[in-house]
Amino acid sequence: MESVLYVRGRSPLSGHVTISGAKNAALVLMAGALLCPEPCRLRNVPNLLDVKRMGQIVRALGVKLDAHEDVLDIDATHIGQSQAPYELVSQLRASFFVIGPVLARLGIARVPLPGGCAIGARPVDLHVRGLQALGADVQIHHGVVRACVRGGRKRLRGAKIYLDYPSVGATETLMMAATLAEGETTLDNAAQEPEVVDLANFCRAMGAKIQGAGTKTIRIVGVPRLHTADYRIVPDRIEAGTFLVAGAITQSEISMSPVIPDHLTAAIAKLRAMGTQVAMDSPNTLRVVPGPIEAADIETQPYPGFPTDMQAQFMALSTLSNGNSVITETVFENRLRHVAELQRMGADIRVKGNIAVVRGVPMLSGAPVVATDLRASAALVLAGLAADGKTVVQGLHHLDRGYENLTKKLCGLGANIERVTVPSCETATEPLETGQPSV
């Protein structure tokens, strides 16, 4: 059995939606808690498939977890294993984050090469070279990365590290590893994403000495030990951006909170260029004021540039624009696979390499489509909301990885959308009488 979404388009949206905690922050903060030999508490944790998988991984390392609503208590006092299980790590890219804190705590770590969405190669070379600079011997055999502190020492040593690319994962992994190292570490050309800042703030709440997170240079002075902390995760900027596009593509006025507007600067600027106004009703509340959709060119870049995680959603919006848009994907080489699915709905898109030329059409038509990755799944839902007729979205395991209660939230805004369980061997085109909605 599998779940599919039936989206009946052209229903106006209205009202207010609550934005969940940031998925990408929650995952790395769960790994960061492994640095602390005392219990920690994370608040505003989203209920997502990726978070559950990360929970299984840290439990396999001997960590005690206790979840209640959006609160997660993590007790990493005793880490009983230094190797994360392959069957779990292979499903989740973010699971590789545990190599940094486990190596820092135990002096040894064994982590299989990670999995996740098939949107690009995303090698771990930067992580490996950085850990080596911090004094670790690192070897990769049979798909497993083994790292141990060099020369029989108990702790890593601070170092000056330059990242060839501002990788979020490498920045976070090395920042966590350096937190317990001897001496000072400098990370140059570091990623500046808000999730990197959230990890640094969490580590500081536990007693770490970190400066410069959110800039290109991060400095970490290692400490021997961290202490307990109670920390609230930032709102999910990608979920907020997705709902901003939902208002724009359906020509609907909706509001959302809590948000941190500074995290959405690039997306808001592009929405305004495309004819949609975004009003700030309060310091943490945004409201979409739609207008005619205009074409605009987009190029994904590391933060503070336009986020690759919003590319698919904006492509869906561009399909209904007045004019032609050029969308260039520079971060992940395989992140244009949703084009074929949007074409099924009548979108006029031409692709060459990492560039998509989108010629706006007057209307999309509902069709059966299959999600190819997490953000593509959201883009197909958005397109379905604006399309004429019914869109059937399959591949919801991608959607469940990163959006908490998306169906329920959209229904609360007035969308005509239903989640139904159908036999996995069937091509879902009509709701079955025996299907059980699970909105």
Quick description:
This protein is α+β, with helices and mostly antiparallel strands and 439 residues long. The protein contains 14 helices and 23 strands. Helix 1 runs parallel beside helix 7 (194-205), helix 6 packs parallel to helix 7 (194-205) and helix 8 packs parallel to helix 10.
The helix content is 25-40%
Quaternary state reads single chain
Q: Report the strand count.
A: 23
Q: Count of helices? A: 14
The mean pLDDT is 92
Q: Report strand %.
A: 15-25%
| Secondary structural class | alpha+beta
The total number of structural domains is 2
Task: Identify the CATH class of the largest domain.
Answer: Alpha Beta
Radius of gyration, in angstroms, nearest whole number:
22 Å
CATH superfamily of the largest domain: Enolpyruvate transferase domain
The end-to-end span amounts to: 16 Å
